[in-house]
């Protein structure tokens, strides 16, 4: 935390300097949590060159990782401008992250769209959570209002755990909730001077367990401690990659 605050990240150039290696790690792991077709090689090529040469896998995986890079580029400016979290920002993040990834049934038969809240019920997890479509916007507005009312010197890690667990509980979109939720968490952290986090694919069982604890009893300690461990792991890996290059 002190190291991150010492960086004094304020401009887009600062963000690129400090998150150059982090952004690829985040995109790879966030994509792979829900899509095992995502590869490190393709993610690296997209971030380094804007395209993946000799790609032969599932096109959706390629679109998802391209969208991760586009979203990173979008949010650099918004962070530099200190744009607050809002419903419009959530919808914009979803549109960028899911453009071109909705299948024919979801897009044509169900009328779902990137950048729009869900029109149908999509329950998730063992507890079958998810706000009804007609309540999504109000539930997210309530969540944002809660965050705006928090004292500036509060426990950011606990607040981040609540933001992420509550967002995934609401499950506001037909698809892409995990990718959007993890992106929002990092946007919130960085907006408040806290280092961002990679939730690692190899730790997704513990991640899902922490989400389930909130779904069952609104208990946040498991998610808070999970995020603490992931932040330590994130920056150990990020700093090691920087030293290896």
What would the keywords be for this entry?
Fic-like fold; single chain; 0% strand; 245 residues; 65% helix; mainly alpha; globular
Detailed description of the structure:
With 245 residues, the chain is mostly helical. The protein has one domain: Fido-like domain (Fic-like fold). The chain has eleven helices and no strands. The protein has helices at residues 2-7, 12-34, 40-49, 59-80, 87-98, 104-109, 136-148, 156-170, 177-191, 204-217, 221-244. Helix 5 (87-98) packs across helix 9 (177-191). 37% of the residues are buried.
How far the N terminus sits from the C terminus, by CA atoms, comes to: 24 Å
Poorly predicted regions: none
Total number of strands: 0
Shape: globular
> How many domains, in number, for the residues?
1
User: What does the average pLDDT come to?
Assistant: 90
CATH architecture: Orthogonal Bundle
């Amino acid at each position: 935390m002190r190291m991150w605050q010492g960086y004094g990240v304020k401009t887009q150039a600062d963000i690129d300097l400090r998150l150059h290696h982090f952004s690829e790690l985040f995109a790879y792991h966030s994509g792979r949590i829900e899509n095992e077709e995502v590869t490190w090689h393709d993610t690296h090529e997209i971030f380094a060159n804007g395209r993946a040469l000799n790609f032969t896998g599932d096109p959706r995986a390629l679109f998802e990782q391209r969208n991760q890079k586009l979203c990173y580029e979008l949010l650099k400016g918004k962070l530099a401008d200190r744009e607050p979290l809002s419903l419009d920002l959530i919808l914009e993040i979803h549109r960028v992250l899911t453009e071109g990834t909705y299948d024919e049934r979801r897009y044509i038969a169900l009328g779902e769209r990137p950048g729009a809240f869900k029109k149908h019920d999509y329950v998730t997890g063992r507890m079958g959570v998810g706000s009804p479509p007609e309540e999504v916007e109000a539930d997210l507005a309530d969540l944002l209002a809660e965050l705006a009312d928090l004292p500036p010197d509060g426990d950011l890690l606990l607040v981040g755990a609540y933001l992420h667990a509550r967002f995934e509980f609401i499950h506001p979109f037909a698809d892409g909730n995990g990718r959007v939720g993890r992106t929002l968490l990092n946007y919130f952290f960085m907006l408040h001077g806290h280092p961002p986090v990679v939730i690692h694919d190899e730790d997704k069982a513990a991640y899902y367990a922490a989400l389930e604890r909130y779904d069952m009893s609104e208990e946040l300690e498991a998610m808070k401690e999970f995020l603490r461990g992931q932040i330590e792991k994130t920056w150990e890996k990020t700093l090691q990659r920087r030293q290896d290059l």
